[in-house]
Amino acid sequence: MSRLRDLVGVALTGLFARKVRTALLLLGPTIGVAAIIAAVGLTDSAKGDLKRKVAELGTNLIEASAASSFGSQDPTLPADAVDRARTVVTVDKVSAVVELQNIVVSPYQEATENFETVPVPVLASDLALPDVLEVPLVSGRWLNDFDDVGDSRTAVIGVGLAREFDYLPGELRSILLNGLEYAVVGVLDEVELEPAFDNAVFITFAAADDDFVDADILPNKLYLRARDGSEDATAEALKVAVNLGGPDEVQTELKSEALELASQSDRQLQLIVVSMGLLAIVVGGIGIANVMSISVIQRSSEIGIRRALGHTRSTIAIQFILEAIVVGFLGGVLGVAVGVAAIAVGVGVAGWVFTLQPVLVPAGVALAMVISVIAGLYPAVRAAGLEPLETLRLG
Q1: pLDDT tens, 127-164?
Q2: Smallest Cα–Cα separation from 342: which of 96, 6, 112, 30?
C-alpha cells in the first residue's frame, strides 16, 4: 500500500511540476467530454421541450390541403369543403383558409417600397380558425360575423408581424394591403404547429372576394381537430369525404408529426456532435501519447536515477500509467463541468427545461480515463525500457 501511495505521490508531483505540459494534456479529454455532454444534454433538453409543446398543443390537429392531380399551380378545395369534412364522425371542429397571392403588405404608404420585396402571407379565413388551432389572441378580437358579411375592411395579424410593424396592444392601427387600408382588430398569439401564421395577415373570405379575387374565392386548406386516438383514421377518411370522387386530390398531414421530425433531426445533430466529441477525445489521446513520450525523454535522468536506485521496470511503467489516469480523471471532470455549463447556458437562452442523463457524468469521466490510459501505454512501456546507462545519452 505504501509503495502505491509513493507512486501516486511521484506521479502527481511529476504532473504538477510541469503545469503547462499538464494543461496541454488536459485539453483533449476536456474538449471531447464537454462536446459529448453538451450535445446529448442540449438535444435531450430540446426534445423534452418538444414533448411539452406537443402535450400542450395536442396531437390531433390535421391539415387537409388541395393537391390537384392535373398539376394546377393553385389547386383549391370545393366550396363546401368544410361541410364535407364535418360528415366524418371523428372530426370535432374544422376551419378553412386560402392564401392569397401577390398582395403587398405595408404598415403605411411610405414604407410600401421596402415591403414589396418582403413577402407577407395574406390568408382569407373563416371565423373558427383560432378555436380549431386552440391559440388565443394576444390583444383585440378575431374576425366576426359583421366583418364577414359587411363591407368593413378588418384584419388580424400574427404576433411576429405585430413586432415587425411595432404594433402596440390595443392600438388603433391600420395596415395597407395592395394600397387598401385595413383596420387591425386583433393580434393572434404564436402558432407552434404552423409557424408561418406568426407573420401572416388574416382577413375574411368576403373581403378577399371583394378586393383581391376576380372569381369566386375557394379554400385550399382545412384545419381540423380529430377525436383523440382517431387521428390516422380521420386523416384517411377526409381524403374521401372532401374529394367525393372529384378530379382533385386531397392530401392530409398530422401537424404534430412536424415536431416529431424536428426531434429526429435534433437526434441526428446529436449523433454528429457526439461523433465530433469522440474524435476530439481520440485526437486528445494522440496528443497525450506525444506529450508523454517527449516527457520520457525530458525526464530520462530522473528515470535513470530511479532505476539505479533499484526501481523495477514495472514501477516506472506504473508511474506513467498513473499519470495518464490522473490526466484522464481531471480532464473528464473538467469536461463534464464545461459540458454542464454549456447546457445551462443553452437552455437558459432557449427557454428549455434543463435535462441531463445522470449516467453521462460517470460515463464521461470513465471514457476520458480509458482513452488517457490507452494513450499512456506506449510512453509507459518506453520509459520502463530505459536502462540507466542509456539515460546518460538521452539526458
Answers
A1: 999 999 888 999 999 999 999 887 789 999 999 999 98
A2: 30
Taking residue 33's Cβ as centre, other Cβ atoms within 10 Å add up to: 34
What 3-state class would DSSP assign to 98?
strand
How far from 201 is each of 99, 133, 134, CA to CA, in Å? 10, 16, 18
Summarised one tens digit per residue, pLDDT across range 51-76 is: 666 655 567 888 888 876 444 567 88
Nearest Cα neighbor of 391 from 263, 297, 294 is 297
Contact 93, 128 (CB under 8 A): yes
Q: Which grid cell sits at 395? A: 539526458
Decide the pairing of beta strands 221-226 and 91-100. Answer: antiparallel
The pLDDT value given to residue 29: 84
Q: Are 366 and 332 in contact (CB under 8 A)?
A: yes
Q: Report the C-alpha gap between 277 and 269 in whole angstroms.
A: 12
Q: What is the DSSP letter of 168?
A: P
CA distance 49 to 46: 5
How far apart, in whole angstroms, are the C-alpha atoms of residue 269 and residue 22? 32
Cell numbers of 214, please? 376576380
| Confidence check: pLDDT of 190 > 80 | yes
d(CA 214, CA 90): 36
Q: Are 202 and 210 in contact (CB under 8 A)?
A: no
Cβ contact 143:218 at 8 Å: no
